[in-house]
Structure prediction request, 301 residues.
Amino acid sequence: MELMEYHKPVLLTETVDGLNVKPDGIYVDVTFGGGGHSKEILNRLGEEGRLVAFDQDEDSIVNIINDSRFLLINENFRYLKQFLKFNSISKVDGILGDFGVSSHQFNVAERGFSTRFEAKLDMRMNKKSPFSAFDVINKYSEEKLRLVFYNYGELRAAAGIARVIVENRQQRPIVSSEQLKNSLGRFLPKHRESKILAQIYQAIRIEVNQELAALKDFLSQTIDVLNSGGRLSLISYHSLEDRLVKRFIRNGLFEGEPEKDVFGRVDIPFKKIGKFIIPTHDEIKRNNRARSAKLRIAEKL
Prediction:
C-alpha cells in the first residue's frame, strides 16, 4: 500500500518546519498513520538522528519505514513517556501530532468512522479494544448519552437525541449506522443532515476512544519529555482539541490560570511560535480532509 493512498499528510512542510529539525536530534511523531510526516522528518535528519513514531491502529504497521533511525511503537500516544523510557529515551528535541481520524480510517467502511457508509457501530482506533460505539449507544444511560452528545458533539438537541436512542434500543439493539440514522430522523433535516450526523459521530468517536483524555495525558507528558528549546508541532481538527492545545501552550494548563509566585511571576513551560497556521486553498482542493486543520507550534522554555 502506498503512503499517499493510505493518508495524505496535512500541512506537511509547515508542520515539519515547525519542529526546527536538528540533524542529530531525537524526534517523535505520535500519529504515524500513513507515515508522510515521519518520512519528511527522516529526510531532514542526519545519520545520528532518530525518529520514534506512535500509532495505536495496527493497520498503520503496513506503512512502517525501513530505516535504521526509525522505530514504530504500536501504542496510544497517551503512553508517550512510558514507551520512550522503555526504549532508553528520556528527552527528545521535538514532537509532532496530527490528531483526529486518518483518511484510511474514514475510507474503510467496516471501521464505522464515516457517515457515508452503512456499517456496524464500531469507531475503535485500536481494533483490539473491547469497547466500541455499539457499547456507547446500547449500554449508556440516557443521562450519560446526553452528556456525550452535548460535551463532545456540542449538540443543542443532545437530550432529545439521547432519549430517542434509549426508546429505540428498547425495541431491539441498535447495531448499525443505518439503524442509528433512521432512529434519529427527526433531528436530521435535509439541509443540515450531514453536519448534524458528523457532530453525532464525532461525539461517539471521542467517547469510544477517550480522545480528549488521551490528548490531555499526552500533552502533560511533553513538559518532562522535551529538551529545553524542543518544539511541539500539533494539528487539531475541531474546537474541543484545539482549545486544549491552545490553553496548554499558553500556560501549561487545560483550564484556569497558572499560580503566581510572591513576585507576581508565573512559571509557563512553553512559548508560542508564531500564529496558528491553516491550509491554503490549494491544499484543501487537493485534500478535503485538510479544510478544518489548525497547526499550533510551541517551544519548551
Remarks:
- The CA atoms of residues 95 and 222 lie 8 Å apart.
- The radius of gyration is 20 Å.
- The chain is about 40% helix and 15% strand.
- The first helix runs from residue 3 to 6.
